[in-house]
Amino acid sequence: MNTIFYITAAVAIISSLLAITNKNPIHALLYLILSLLSISVIFYTLGAPFIAALEVIVYAGAIMVLFIFVVMMLNVGLQEEQENKWLTPQMFLIPSILAAALLVLFVIALKDFHFEKHPAIVVGPKEVGISLFTTYLIAVELSAILLLAGIVGAYHLGKQKKKVIHRFLVKQPRIKK
Amino acid sequence: MLFNRVIPRRGIALLGVGSVALSALITIIAGIKFLSIPPAGGAYTTTIYTWLSTGGFTADIAFRMDALTLVFCFVITFVGALIHLYSVEFMKDDDGFARFFAYMNLFVSSMLILVLSNNLLLLYLGWEGVGLCSYLLIGFWYKDPANDYAARKAFIVTRIGDTFMIVGLFLLVITFGTLNIDTLLRQAPLVWSSGSPVAVIAALLLLGGALGKSAQLPLQTWLPDAMAGPSPVSALIHAATMVTAGVYLIARLNVLFILAPEVLAAIAIIGAATLLIAGFSALTQHDLKRVLAYSTISQIGYMFLALGVGAWSAAIFHFMIHAFFKALLFLGAGSIILLLHEEHDMHKMGGLRKKMPIVFLTFLIGGASLSALPLITAGFYSKDQILWFSLASGIGSKWLWLAGIAGALLTSLYTFRMIFLVFFGEAKTEPKHQPGPLMTIPLIILAALSLIGGFIELPHNLGPVHLFSRLLEPVFPALILSESHAPEWIIQVISALIAIGGIYLAYLLFNKKTLSSNVIEKSRLSHFFYQGWGFDWLYNKLFVLPLVWLSQIDKKDFIDKFYSSLAHAVNYSGTLLSRTQNGKLRWYVMVMVAGLILLLTIMLNL
Amino acid sequence: MTVPMETQILFAGVLFLIGLVGLLVRRNIIFMLMSIELMLNSAAMVFVMGGAHWGHADGQVMFIFILTVSAAEVSVGLALILQMYHHYRTLDADSMRKLKDHKANENL
Predict the structure, then answer these.
(1) pLDDT at A136
(2) Cα separation values, B517 from B118, B344, B505, B510, B527, Å
């Protein structure tokens, strides 16, 4: 179990790194999906099968696909030169320093905690479902409203003033005889 | 002033002159009452209300009239009323007619407050008031910047004296806890022994104030320039009243000065030195009014000399007589200048004896009184008394007397030089017309007083008339004569001979031109005297130029810049910080992360 | 034996930092949104790890809610990106600078 955790953790980290340093948006998204899939495996090893499935279905399956749809709709293209210009190695300097500093702080903070070792317990969908619909019912309703707000907002914001008509649908001007 | 256009000229004149004339009348009535029924304690007192009362120190608006104050009030109001009458005609063509009378009345009221107050704080109020009015009136024709300069100079130089005086007042308050004059004079001998350092310092400081106002050494430089004002102003302020405020102060606080004999000696020496210096300077002037200005400085030097040797009533007597003839001379000079189309230079005048006879006669009488022509003029009696006491007093000396005699020679010399240049010889400028009655009547009255005013106080060997000194006896301590001195009549004869000799010498030099006066007039020494013995030059180099240089350096106000640099620093740091708001999302995230790191560091107690 | 808790949380932290670096480094706004998703995911992962440690379902419930929020946020964010692209014809995050302090940043 532990080896699976470490291997998938390595995969997740490497694919995340590749995702953020890629110049092609589609490639980067695919790497991100890979990362999410490996995280799902980690969830499974942790004893949360329901969440593992949910991660794949919702996160990798819906949200990332939404990303890909938007990228394709924008029709941005490869943008190789632009990304080359923007993504220089010098750019990584200060963020890396900050990230390293935060990492050090994490490590220091974690040192003082002493966690007891528990045996792995599998928390199945049944417990999750019961917990969701009894203890956290209000939160479920609220998140439903949130999703509604998201839908309405996305629809409204996605509207364009300018009607973009596909070029095949534009009326050709009649040639006067 | 408010009603400048509303009330016609006549009304303003009536109001202005009438108020002072009313004061004169009241003074005369009060004086008659005072003389006939002397009040208890030697003075009338009135308290109006308590001005301030803080921390144990009280000062009231209260007035006290004793014999000394009575004399001063009489001179101020009477001579003042005559001068106001004169000014109605003198200023009749001027736009600032109403303003002039407003200022003059303010001056008379301030001077009266000065002499009538019973505590030194109210006196200081009057002191400052007359200083202010002097400034306003010297710079009366303010459109000419030279007049403004003269006014500022007068104010600043007297201000130096005033500062000394206020420090002296502080010292008195600290020592005695009150500024009430009666209390001070009673307490001073009990608290201070004669010659104690505190007394000397207090007396010196008060003397500083007196020197400033009375234009004595070393603060005498403002008076000749103050002649930029109209002649009635010169007559009232700079001859009769304001410049004698210093004399009043010293006379009033005589007990304090007696307790500091070194200061008294200093007063006498300053008086002697001033009268000589001013006398020499008066001899070389061209401007008619400047001769009279230096003459005033010289005569007040005589008064200081008298005060310094302890001849208090002689000083006050000379003050009164001097007020009469000096005001007369100034008014006469004013009418000459006015009617000669604003001509000030004596060498351009001449032969006015026949052209303006009344002015000539009155001027002659005034000049004779100034020169102390023996027996007939009042000036003889007053000046002779001073000369006698300078020799004969217990604290007098023959050097002071010699200075006084030399000064008398100079006085008659420059006075008659003035008269010969202006009234004799051939006419170089024609007068416009004869002066009207409003100008000549005051001249005549003052001339009469210059002649007969002396007869109320005759010297011991000439007669038993001692009205004036009897009047002032309760106010002043008695004068102690020294043990051995020459008999009085020798002194009188010497001074009479000097006076007549001076007139004859002037006659030879300036009328008959027997002795050559050109050599004297153009020599370097005469130029030195003309410049007022270089005092102006000295003060310019010592004080004015360094201050101007300092203010040039401070042109950008670098001291203020130090304080405003704090504000600039804050402003600058604000500008710097607002550069961080550059609208870039990634920048904001980075700053957030940096803040997070900082917070975590602090939270983890690193 | 399960993996020690520190390692798990550290792993989630590393993923979070990678997402952070991605957010700071990339200028294209799509990539920035991607990095934000990564960060959200790693934060949610910590919840799951905590829930698994104690054997409760609360961690997984929290993960569901975070997922919901993330979904809503992504849809709205992508709609905004669409608008941005249609108006400004660029996906440059640095060009959206109209809310800057104009007086101090005239030349930047």
Answers:
(1) 92
(2) 52, 21, 11, 7, 14
Query: C23 to chain A: nearest residue by CA?
Result: A20
C-chain residue closest to B572, CA distance: C104
Domain coordinates in residue numbering, chain A: 1-77, 124-159
Exposed e or buried b per residue across C9-36, where buried means at least 16 C-beta atoms within 10 angstroms of its C-beta = bbbbbbbbbbbbbbbbbbbbbbbbbbbb
Dist. CA B347–CA B359, nearest whole Å: 18
pLDDT class of B515 with cuts at 50, 70, 90: low
pLDDT score, position B288: 87
What ipTM was assigned to the predicted interfaces of this complex?
Answer: 0.91
Q: What is the spatial distance between Cα B196 and Cα B204, in angstroms, rounded to a whole number?
A: 12
Strands (E), A1-86: none
Phi, psi angle pair for A50, to nearest 5°: -60, -45
Residues 6+ positions from B522 with CB-CB distance below 8 Å: none
Give chain C's domains with CATH numbers. Answer: 5-94 (1.10.287.3510)
Model's pTM, two decimal places? Answer: 0.67
User: By three-state DSSP, how is residue B117 classified?
Assistant: strand
Strand, helix or coil at B588? helix
Torsion sign over Cα B372, B375, B379, B380: positive
Nearest chain A CA: its distance from C100 CA (Å)? 21
For residue B393, what pLDDT is reported? Answer: 75
- Listed by start position, the domains of chain B span 1-195+207-255, 260-515, 523-556, 557-603
Output the six-digit token pair for B544. 């004015």
Residue B178: strand, helix, or coil: coil
Distance from CA of A169 to the nearest CA of C (A): 20
3-state secondary structure of A120: coil
Q: Do the Cβ atoms of A54 and C63 come within 8 Å? A: yes
pLDDT at B521: 60
Give the Cα separation of B85 and B17 in Å (integer).
6
B593, closest residue in chain A (CA to CA): A98
Please answer yes or no on whether C101 and B586 come within 8 Å at the CB atom: no
CATH 1.20.120.1200 fits A1-77, yes or no: yes
Query: Distance between CA atoms of B302 and B322, rounded to whole angstroms?
Result: 10
Flag whether residue A87 sits within 8 Å of chain C, measured between CB atoms.
yes
- Output the CA angle B376-B449-B306, nearest 5 degrees: 75
Residues of A with Cβ-Cβ distance to B597 under 8 angstroms: 98, 101-102, 105
* Nearest C-alpha in A relative to C6: A110
Name all chains with 3 or more CB-CB pairs below 8 Å to chain B.
A, C
Q: What is the pLDDT of residues B412-471, one digit of tens each?
A: 888 888 888 888 777 777 777 777 777 788 888 888 888 887 777 666 666 666 777 677
Please tell me the distance from the alpha carbon of residue B73 to that of residue B64, in angstroms, as a whole number: 12
Q: Chain A contacts of C45, Cβ < 8 Å?
A: 39, 42-43
* pLDDT per residue as tens digits for the range C16-46: 999 999 999 988 889 999 999 999 999 999 9
Q: In terms of Cα–Cα distance, which of A42, A171, B395, B74 is closest to C49?
A: A42
Chain C residues near residue B582 by CB distance under 8 angstroms = 97, 100-101, 105, 108
Instruction: Give just the sign of the alpha carbon dihedral B357, B360, B362, B368.
Output: negative
Half-sphere exposure for B265 (CA within 13 Å, toward CB): 9
- Asked if the C-beta of A108 comes within 8 angstroms of chain C's C-beta atoms, the answer is no
Q: What distance in Å separates the CA atoms of residue B596 and residue B602, rounded to the nearest whole number?
A: 10
CA dihedral B391, B397, B399, B404 (to 10 degrees): -40
Buried b (16+ CB within 10 A) or exposed e, B125-156: bbbbbbbebbbbbbbbeeeeeebbebbbbbbe
- Predicted pLDDT at A83: 65
